[in-house]
Amino acid sequence: MHATLIHAPGDIRFEEVPDPRLSTGGDAIVRVVAACVCGSDLWPYRGVTPTDEPHRIGHEFVGVVEEVGPEVRRIKVGDFVIAPFYDCCMACVNCLNGFSTSCLNGGWWGEDDRMGAFADAGQGERVRVPHADGSLVATPSMPDDALVPHLLTLSDVMGTGHHAAVSGGVGPGKTVVVVGDGAVGLCAVLASARLGADRIIAMSRHADRQALARRFGATELVEERGKEGVARIRELTGGVGADVVLECVGTKESMDQALRSARPGGQVGFVGVPNGGPELPLRVMFGTNVGVRGGVAPVRNYIEELLPEVWDGRLQPGAVFDLELPMSEVADAYRAMDERRAIKVLLRP
Amino acid sequence: MHATLIHAPGDIRFEEVPDPRLSTGGDAIVRVVAACVCGSDLWPYRGVTPTDEPHRIGHEFVGVVEEVGPEVRRIKVGDFVIAPFYDCCMACVNCLNGFSTSCLNGGWWGEDDRMGAFADAGQGERVRVPHADGSLVATPSMPDDALVPHLLTLSDVMGTGHHAAVSGGVGPGKTVVVVGDGAVGLCAVLASARLGADRIIAMSRHADRQALARRFGATELVEERGKEGVARIRELTGGVGADVVLECVGTKESMDQALRSARPGGQVGFVGVPNGGPELPLRVMFGTNVGVRGGVAPVRNYIEELLPEVWDGRLQPGAVFDLELPMSEVADAYRAMDERRAIKVLLRP
């Protein structure tokens, strides 16, 4: 089969690789129907994180189950399934606590699973999925083609935006600021609207992303950044700041802006992968009582809650995909996202 | 009158100072019935924070109202009142949001208030209290002498321990670890028990403090610290860590221990004044989804909730006072706490 590898910064190739084979008993082989490129995939692409040797890449996909191991009970051949951006057992204490990203048995796509077998990455034609019964969620039936992009967001971006909102404590009556207008930030706007936020202030200076933010439920837009952005937020929030700020970027600057945009006693929900390891100023947090909570999103735990609304069309997060390419043109997909010509690119094998 | 001044590290004096006078209209003069020494008072005492010139010190006191300004409506001459460790209006947006420590009109004892008048510090015979109607809470009637220590804890330590527990999300079914066995840590144990925690693990290696922790509701004790302490907590919590960790010290080491003692998706509630400005490792928080929330405790907002239980004897936080001295011997009080001969010293004029 073919799958995507990164060889070096800027060097993405769709190459012949070995077909996956069932090996651990509880695994499944999924034929990928759609995959996509994540903002975090751009880090090795841009050389921000090193690429020591060529390796498989991609962690968001949906598809159809072709084979299952002898221990698989819940998932069946022929199921259309959503895979979270990691694999997990959904039976250990961390999974049951709602944090399947800290699964005691799980792992990451493109790496060896805990049983020593290779788990393919997501941007390929087929993927061996460890812990198939835990990791995969089957849809009620085979979806229409138009529904596929929306379902695909449950692999990562929609669940991650939802996690930001949940971590920040978004709810009715709250004023929410969203820092970051990438696909995750936009999904955080949508998640905040879904959770009943009163006001949603999206920070964005790109017309196309502003339009999507509005469509997803943003009630106000702020184009300023940094100090000016904080000043504008304060102006819009009675001088004190917002109840909740969702940090969906991951830089020192964006986290700083988030912390300073929250009112005393407010909360920052963060899902931006910390880039360059920024540290949080504890003294500032002590003085203002602004809490910080979030991290790598346990999207698997959210699929059951979000899927019914995506399935019946009430929730349409797939609008974040503004470009679709054949998977063989995956290098172009990375280029389009790197150059910010696309918010998020969907790939079909 | 007489009041306490710090002249330099280790140099505490009870000296003649000018009598306070009403000056802003909304203020009151309170005759102090009991005051005490705070762990944070030891910082300038130990030279951890600088003392550039002699100044008034102390911020925890209860007393009887002797005079009120013409604008004061709620508080009356003769009331027995509890003062929080800061003054606040209880009318601005931050006060109404529950964070009176960020009052837009308030200030700190021993400094000029926002109207340019000096607010006496707490370890003195009398105190001018700005925003008397906001800051002070009157008890239902004149308390028995035996009740005074318990009421005094509502000025700071009990409210601060409660804030740690609230910030950490303590509630029924939770396993809570308390880092720090000072008066605040012990009050955090008591607050956790009051809020219905299932298990409360107190980290302490001092027999007297262990005994008080047990009396306050600790179900387990851990004597180990640092790496060994974290290992012991993991052992006691099914290998993953506690739901909630309350950080009541304020050093880099204690915060690190707290973060590593929480389970994935757990929460650190912190009230230890950050000593030396430790920063939080955002990447660790990202990976584990452990949230951090807390800070300078808005104890004024908690007095109404806690006072009835203290008043009727159900809640007895005053047990943290294990030494009582006349206020004229305040220098000995500092020495006893500095040398850890006392958990917390109560002073009577």
Automatic annotation (TrEMBL), chains A, B:
<protein>
    <submittedName>
        <fullName>IMP dehydrogenase</fullName>
    </submittedName>
</protein>
<comment type="similarity">
    <text>Belongs to the zinc-containing alcohol dehydrogenase family.</text>
</comment>
<dbReference type="InterPro" id="IPR002328">
    <property type="entry name" value="ADH_Zn_CS"/>
</dbReference>
<dbReference type="InterPro" id="IPR013149">
    <property type="entry name" value="ADH-like_C"/>
</dbReference>
<dbReference type="InterPro" id="IPR036291">
    <property type="entry name" value="NAD(P)-bd_dom_sf"/>
</dbReference>
<keyword id="KW-0560">Oxidoreductase</keyword>
<dbReference type="InterPro" id="IPR011032">
    <property type="entry name" value="GroES-like_sf"/>
</dbReference>
<dbReference type="GO" id="GO:0008270">
    <property type="term" value="F:zinc ion binding"/>
</dbReference>
<dbReference type="InterPro" id="IPR020843">
    <property type="entry name" value="ER"/>
</dbReference>
<dbReference type="GO" id="GO:0016491">
    <property type="term" value="F:oxidoreductase activity"/>
</dbReference>
<keyword id="KW-0479">Metal-binding</keyword>
<keyword id="KW-0862">Zinc</keyword>
<feature type="domain" description="Enoyl reductase (ER)">
    <location>
        <begin position="7"/>
        <end position="347"/>
    </location>
</feature>
<dbReference type="Pfam" id="PF00107">
    <property type="entry name" value="ADH_zinc_N"/>
</dbReference>
<dbReference type="Pfam" id="PF08240">
    <property type="entry name" value="ADH_N"/>
</dbReference>
<dbReference type="InterPro" id="IPR013154">
    <property type="entry name" value="ADH-like_N"/>
</dbReference>
